[in-house]
Structure formats: structure tokens, C-alpha cells
Design brief:
The structure holds two protein chains of two kinds. Chain A is built from nine helices and 15 strands. Chain A is α/β, with parallel strands linked by helices. Chain A is globular. The chains are: A alpha/beta, B mainly beta.
Chain lengths: 322, 247
């Protein structure tokens, strides 16, 4: 068992140290239900939620980089009330504990959101996402707003480039645990539209910077630290644990290879399957995908290719009622 | 959505800017419908490979094989193994009893509509394709000879425009991302004026192909502005009824 927040009345305890980072896995993980076994994850962190609904940003939102991606979604979400209505039942029955990520817009909005979540079943904790320029005072006010309106365990996600100062302020204000770190912002030109686009930047290159920040924060932290930033393999995740993290959050590799999330979780959770000598060849293993699974099941093995085979009659698309 | 592998069997350069890749695929992918696409990355990415998966659009289906049409600038070779997540998106909704389909393409190649046109024509549906801007550069030899082809001018007008819009049982519009909303709104307004009392669901749909990050609906970066519910190009699209779009 891994404690993600300081010991106390309501500590947040998980069984596996691996979870998706906010914004990567949707609001309940349902989009990846066919590709990831949720029961193997330590927790699910939702997409950022705000008091009022927000629509996606205008203009280009996804810009490829040489080794990563810049993303500017504008934090689209249905607002806390609709989110609870829409996802509350699924959160309550989730196979992994659900941590709701709140974007710390204003202390008043954080207070309302925390209060709404307090009345919602099936929430394991709150993760508060600070904006990049949050001052120690703002951090304190937002954390107090959350703590005064909810008994739920509180994690605070700090920005990468002010990780130590923000972590210190969050810890002093009563944060139960720290997520280090939210990815930095950057600006790049979108070649498709010709526009300059600003947003958060992700990719494997982020890992050394995040790892350093985790080490620095772990050195001063009196609460558990969750490492995040550029993790693309189980070895990457282990580096974060070695640097002082109690758990890790996996980011954009979920988009490029969703099954890696489960592979990393199984590896760090001691759940990885190894094939014993003489074991049957049709064993499932994490990340093997549909192709290999079918190949190992003779009755589903694809027929040998036939160059002269006639083309199948094209299926008609589904009809809609008039 | 499934995660599978595919093998590139053949690479054909079909024009200066386009190539066709024949992919040997698992039978789970043979259920793919017009409008749905593949989310692809090389199984063993080489240095310089794109970080994100790419959206590949099928143009022909054969038993155990899918042909996709992609830009020629990317280099692929027979024998290469791909990691494929599919299907991305929902099938393009087709109205019941449709006899006449109008496809309008502005500023991009009509690749996403080719499989649908082929399948509907084999079912006896008459298809008219209006090409404008860069779409006129699409190699016509890749189109079925039974498709009627018209060309639009820079103001999205073409010969007998009102007649063709009135003639169609269903209209699908595909435009380049930078002018998408402008084109879709214009055509939607024209159709509303033509049929003020009768604009049934799915009479006119726009196709949305933003650059995808997750392709699964998780990141919500492909949200299409809508009147009511959240609509995502990657899961609700690519075809969205323009009645639901907030212009």
C-alpha cells in the first residue's frame, strides 16, 4: 500500500504507484476501456475540471514537435455540476480510485468545486492544478479554499519551473501530497496554419527536467511526492521512484501507446507476467495487442493471404431513420 | 477501439503528392466503415518519426487488406510493421433510402469520401462531387468514372448550384481546416434558405479532421463547437450534422 498524502484523518492510499496524469485519460478512463485494464492502475486522475463549463480553445490545439507535442486545449470540461452528473456514477464504480483534478482558477471557484465533490460518492481525492505564475499567497488561498470545503485528501500539482517554491508554499498551506510537475508552457509555429501557438509541451525530453525537480522537491518535502513528466517506460518510472517519488503519473505516452500505461503499472506493481519454461503459447501478456493474441489462438489465426481472392462485397453504411 | 498490428504489403505512388499503401490487417479491422480511420505509428519508430500517431484513411477494403491514401512525403516500405489503433471515429451516417449524394470538397483532397462514394455507388446511389481550390488538383484517375464531377469557383459556387443542392438527398462537405467553419456555415445557410421548412437531420454534414492527439476522446482537443452536447471529431465525427454545430 502506498500513501499519496500525509497520514491523518483521511489519507489517500493506493495499491499501485502508477496512474495517468491529468488531461491524458479523459474524465473516467472509459475512452481507453478496451486498451487498458483499469484494475491494474493505482488511480485514475481526471481531466481538469472547473466550476463553470469551458469549451476548447480556438485555433490549432495540437502541434507536433520534433520529439513531442505542444497541446493547447483550453481545458474543455462540462463544469463541476455536469461532470458529477455525467461521470459520478462511473466514478463510484471505477475499478481504480478516482482523483478529480480541479484547475485552480480562483479560491471561490475552488471552494465551490471542493464542496460539490465532498457530496459526491466514489471520489478518492482531489488534485489541485496551479497555474504557472501562482504566487505563494494564491497557492495558500486556493488550498485553504479546498481544505475548508472538503475532507477529501488533497494533492497539489506544482508547475515545473517553480516546483520547489510552489511545493514549499503548498506544503505549508496544508497540501496532503505534491505532484511534481505540471509540464512547462512553450510557443511554436503550427506549420499547417502558419500561426504561433502557445501551450503545454510534452515528450520524452521532459523527463530529465521533471526528474531533477522531483529530486529537489523530495529533498524538502514532508509529504509524499508523485513524479510526473516524460515517463515513457517502466525504467523511466523507476528513475522517479529512485529520485524520491512515492508514485508516478504517466502522460502523453498514453496517447501514443495506451497499453504502456498498463505495462508500466504492472511492472512497478510487481504484476508483470513472465512466461515459465514450457508454458502454453497462448498466454496473454500486457501490451501484446489484438494481433498477437489472435495469432496465439489457432482458431482465430488469419487465413493465408490469397492474391486471387475476390474482393468482398462492400458493406453498406448503416441507415438512419428518416 | 482495438490495438493491432498491420504489415505494409505494397507502396504505390499514385500522384506527385499521394501514395497508396496496401496494409495486411487483422480481421478485427475489416469491420471498418466509411468515415472511420486508422491511428498509426511504426512498430519500431525510426529517428525522426512523428511522435504522435497519424490518422490514415482507408480508400478500399479487401479481405484481410486495407488500402490507405496518405501524403507521399512520408517514406514507407513494404515489410514495415505498423502499430494500429482502430477504428477512430464513427461511420458517416447515411440517410435512409438515399438515392442522390452530393459531396462538396474545398481546399483539400477528397480522400475521406472515396470509400463512402465507392460503396454507395455499388448500391445504386448517384454521386456528384464538387471540387474547389486545392481539391481540383486531386488526380481524377483515382475517382470512379461514374462520379459526376463539378468544379467550384473561389466563392464556392458551381454551375447549377441550386439545382444540385435541391437534387441531393444528402450533402457532405469537407473543407481545409483554416476555412472550415466559413465554408460549412456558408453552405448550411444556403441550404437553410433553400429548404426553410424542411432541413432534416443529417441532410448536410461537415467533416472534421483536426490534428488528433489521443484519437480516443480522452484529451478533448478535437472538440467541435456545438449548440448543446460536447462533440468530438475523433469519436462523434468525422461527420457532424451541421444543425448541431455552433458557428
Amino acid at each position: 500500500m502506498i500513501e499519496l498524502t500525509r497520514s491523518g484523518k483521511n489519507p489517500l492510499v493506493i495499491e499501485n504507484p502508477v496512474m495517468p496524469a491529468a488531461g491524458m485519460f479523459g474524465f473516467d478512463g472509459a475512452d481507453y476501456r478496451d486498451l487498458v485494464d483499469m484494475s491494474k492502475l493505482g488511480a485514475i486522475v481526471t481531466n481538469p475540471i472547473t466550476w463553470k463549463a469551458r469549451h476548447a480553445a480556438h485555433g490549432p490545439r495540437v502541434v507536433p514537435l520534433p520529439s513531442g507535442v505542444l497541446v493547447h486545449t483550453g481545458l474543455p470540461n462540462p463544469g463541476i455540476s455536469r461532470a458529477i452528473k455525467q461521470y459520478g456514477a462511473r466514478w463510484a464504480h471505477s475499478l481504480a480510485p478516482v482523483i478529480v483534478h480541479l484547475a485552480a482558477t480562483t479560491p471561490a471557484d475552488v471552494a465551490r468545486c471542493a464542496s460539490a465533490l465532498e457530496r459526491c460518492e466514489g471520489i478518492a481525492g482531489i488534485e489541485l492544478g496551479l497555474h504557472d505564475q501562482a504566487s505563494p499567497d494564491e497557492i495558500r488561498l486556493n488550498i485553504e479554499a479546498a481544505l475548508n470545503n472538503s475532507q477529501l485528501p488533497l494533492l497539489v500539482c506544482v508547475p515545473l519551473y517553480s516546483a520547489v517554491e510552489s511545493a514549499r508554499a503548498a506544503q505549508d498551506a496544508g497540501a496532503g501530497g505534491l505532484v511534481v510537475a505540471a509540464p512547462p508552457r512553450g510557443t511554436t509555429r503550427d506549420l499547417e496554419s502558419g500561426q504561433l501557438v502557445g501551450g503545454r509541451v510534452y515528450g520524452p525530453w521532459l523527463k530529465p527536467q521533471a526528474l531533477r525537480a522531483v529530486g529537489q522537491v523530495a529533498h524538502i518535502a514532508e509529504v509524499p511526492v508523485i513524479g510526473s513528466g516524460g515517463i515513457h517506460s517502466a525504467d523511466d518510472a523507476r528513475d522517479f521512484i529512485e529520485a524520491g517519488a512515492a508514485a508516478v503519473q504517466v502522460d502523453t505516452v498514453i496517447w501514443t501507446n495506451p497499453h504502456y500505461l498498463e505495462v508500466i503499472a504492472r511492472n512497478l506493481g510487481g504484476l508483470e507476467l513472465t512466461r515459465a519454461v514450457g508454458a502454453l503459447a497462448d498466454e496473454w501478456e500486457p501490451g501484446m495487442g489484438q494481433t498477437m493474441w489472435m495469432a496465439r489462438h489457432s482458431q482465430f489465426a488469419p487465413p493465408p493471404p490469397d492474391e486471387n481472392a475476390p474482393s468482398i462485397p462492400p458493406p453498406m453504411p448503416p441507415d438512419l431513420p428518416e | 477501439m482495438k490495438h493491432t498490428q498491420a504489415l505494409i504489403e505494397r507502396v504505390r505512388r499514385v500522384s506527385d503528392h499521394l501514395q497508396h499503401l496496401d496494409l495486411a490487417v487483422d480481421r478485427v479491422l475489416m469491420q471498418i466503415k466509411p468515415g472511420q480511420s486508422l491511428f498509426v505509428t511504426p512498430q519500431e519508430p525510426a529517428a525522426g518519426s512523428p511522435y504522435l500517431r497519424e490518422q490514415w484513411i482507408p480508400v478500399e477494403l479487401f479481405p484481410g487488406r486495407i488500402t490507405v491514401e496518405i501524403p507521399a512525403r512520408r517514406v514507407y516500405a513494404p515489410g514495415q510493421i505498423l502499430s494500429v489503433m482502430a477504428p477512430v471515429g464513427s461511420p458517416i451516417p447515411i440517410r435512409s433510402g438515399i438515392q442522390r449524394l452530393l459531396l462538396i470538397v474545398e481546399g483539400v483532397y477528397p480522400t475521406p469520401l472515396m470509400l463512402l462514394a465507392r460503396q454507395l455507388m455499388s448500391g445504386g446511389v448517384a454521386v456528384t462531387l464538387v471540387l474547389g481550390g486545392q481539391a481540383t488538383e486531386y488526380p481524377l484517375e483515382l475517382l470512379s468514372p461514374e462520379i459526376e464531377i463539378l468544379r467550384s469557383d473561389t466563392g464556392w459556387k458551381w454551375p447549377e448550384q441550386m439545382d444540385t443542392l435541391n437534387w441531393a438527398d444528402q450533402v457532405l462537405v469537407l473543407a481545409a481546416a483554416n476555412r472550415q467553419m466559413e465554408v460549412y456555415r456558408h453552405l448550411y445557410d444556403v441550404l437553410r434558405q433553400l429548404r426553410p421548412h424542411d432541413l432534416p437531420d443529417h441532410l448536410v454534414s461537415g467533416l472534421f479532421y483536426p490534428r488528433l492527439a489521443c484519437g480516443a476522446g480522452a484529451c478533448q482537443a478535437c472538440e467541435v463547437p456545438s449548440n448543446k452536447d460536447t462533440l468530438l471529431a475523433c469519436s462523434d465525427g468525422p461527420a457532424i450534422d451541421l444543425k448541431k454545430v455552433q458557428f
